[in-house]
Amino acid sequence: MVLAVVAKDTSGVLERFEIERRAVGDSDVDIDIKYCGICHSDLHQIRGEWAMPLLYPMVPGHEIAGIVRSVGPKVTKFKVGDRVGVGCIVDSCRSCDSCAKGLEQFCANGMLGTYNSKTTKYGQKTKVLEGHDSEYTFGGYSQSVVVTEECVVRIPDSIDLAASAPLLCAGITTYSPLAHFGAKAKGSACTTGVIGFGGLGHMAVKLALAMGNTVYVFSTSVGKKAAVEELG
């Protein structure tokens, strides 16, 4: 059994509870979770604030950073002791055009989310919460997780493991459009405007600066000016 933090309803109150992770399959990576970021979407889902199906009890968390503790016999990319991360996707059909292009988020048959996503779709089988039979995924607010190799990323030794967790959601959410629209390729020839300086805005500014862009921040909060200027 694995200790986890569980939301049982929309109250926003979390409780410690034990869950059971699935057995490690041939292509699975078993991860000892060291850190998990808190994304605002976790809070929305815990409280039932989005117009989408919600499944309780819920174990949130999709910014997972940890250490590999075991791997399946067909795993080739990771070994025990590797520093790894898991974002918001833990599986997809892997056969459609989008998956073939590495765009699993656009999986034609529906990607499998790290939590609150039906596990029967791709044979992930059940995770069991004590006293509750579950057929949906549980996230990173827990001690460990078992994920298919294709949805695990390596975290370089040069990056602080704790600081790497937000990169797996906020980081890729802002890096992707910057790269897609040429901010990375153009470097110092690119001027980037960032609207809002919250969690994502903060990440976007740091990434755009690292790409060599000239960066402007648009905010309604004058009090954030000093924090913006600290980033350069």
Concise summary:
The chain is of the alpha+beta class. The chain is globular.
Q: Which sheet architecture does the biggest sheet show?
A: 5 strands, antiparallel
Helix-and-strand structural type: alpha+beta
Shape: globular
SS field, number of helical segments = 7
Written overview of the protein:
The chain has 232 residues and is of the alpha+beta class. It is 21% helix and 27% strand. The protein is built from seven helices and 13 strands. The protein has helices at residues 40-47, 97-100, 161-164, 170-180, 183-186, 199-210, 225-230, and strands at 2-7, 14-20, 28-36, 64-71, 83-86, 89-91, 112-113, 127-129, 132-134, 144-148, 153-154, 191-195, 214-218. It has a five-stranded antiparallel β-sheet. Strands 1-2-8-9 form a four-stranded antiparallel β-sheet, with no helix packed on it. A two-stranded antiparallel ribbon has the order 6-7. Helix 4 (170-180) packs across helix 6 (199-210). The protein is globular, with a radius of gyration of 19 Å. It starts with a strand and ends with a helix. 36% of the residues are buried.
